[in-house]
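seq:
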Amino acid sequence: MIDNQIIALFFAVGGGISMGVYPMFIKTPSVLKASPHPIVFQMYKSTMVFLTGFLFLIPRYIKWRHSNSDDALYVFTYWGIVSAAAWIPSGLCTIFSVPLIGMSMNVAVTSASSSVLSFLVFWLVFDSKMKTYSCGQGCSYYRAPIFLTTTVLGMLGMIFADSLTAKLFRCGTKEASDKQEQSPLVINDTKLKSNDKTVPIGSFKYWLGIFMSMMGGIFGAIQYAVITLGKQYEEQRHNCYHKEHDTKNVTKCPAVVTESFNDFGSWMV
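struct:
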């Protein structure tokens, strides 16, 4: 049987790849030519998510039909609407920021912001315990703060890399400086055209794009926090909640609770 940690790693990598690739379509020639409003683009995206979500019910329907079970095929939960209320603004922020600062910068800032906030929320609000590692007899340490620190430094490095390298590696002439600015260490689409206007580094629109990317990550973290909060609340309401790694006092939740948060069933719909 495959270890649950391997399955979790597989889905985490797949989710990261998908989240990193999907903003690419915001910069396709057809989209740039049409120049749709972010709300319109988000409407198309939300519609496709809604329609394709029903595909997850097909294998469940086949299994449900042959099992002769009294369990419901689909269970509605208002927590899905609350979660979507954070997911939609996250998508809008991404759609708005990509034409301003480029896809690579957006993905880096959004992912870092989401990771930092998720770490803080699940640690401080949901009381998730940080994993400890041994460094010898009577010695232990945490890797999570190291991850958090390097994530923040990486995000700041991406944001300020171009301006810092231009200042640090100037050769004393304007020609050399201009050449350096044309060949930055971090390749970034910082002169994208938006409504026939360039978006140079350090301009108001550039920082607006950075801010919207950060807000996209923050709303994304809120979305996942809502899922955890909703699941925890419903399990407590049905007296089947148990803390993480508590294998002694485990009560099986009713099928209606399990199915309402089923990632491969009702939740995706």
